[in-house]
Design goal:
By secondary structure, the chain is of the alpha+beta class. The chain has helices spanning about 15-25, 30-35, 55-65, and strands spanning about 15, 45, 50-55.
């Protein structure tokens, strides 16, 4: 039973830490470490909650040799 108000993860602009970890296959602790930097280009702060900008993170990973 699919709900019409649920957006598929690959269509979301911003992902929760849990969603990003599952989608990209990267651990939550590693994501936290990567997003702790002051001017991280792929993190969006919603109050104290971190969101990962999916497209920006995809571009970052495409250019990265290792993380």
């Amino acid at each position: 039973m699919a709900r019409s108000d649920v957006v598929p993860i690959w269509e979301k602009a911003n992902l929760s830490m849990e969603e990003a970890a599952a989608y990209f296959g990267i651990g939550i602790n590693k994501l936290r470490e990567m997003t702790n930097e002051d001017n991280c280009p792929f993190v969006l702060w919603n109050g104290s909650k971190r969101m990962i900008k999916r497209k920006a993170f995809e571009k970052f990973l495409e250019a990265a040799y290792s993380i």
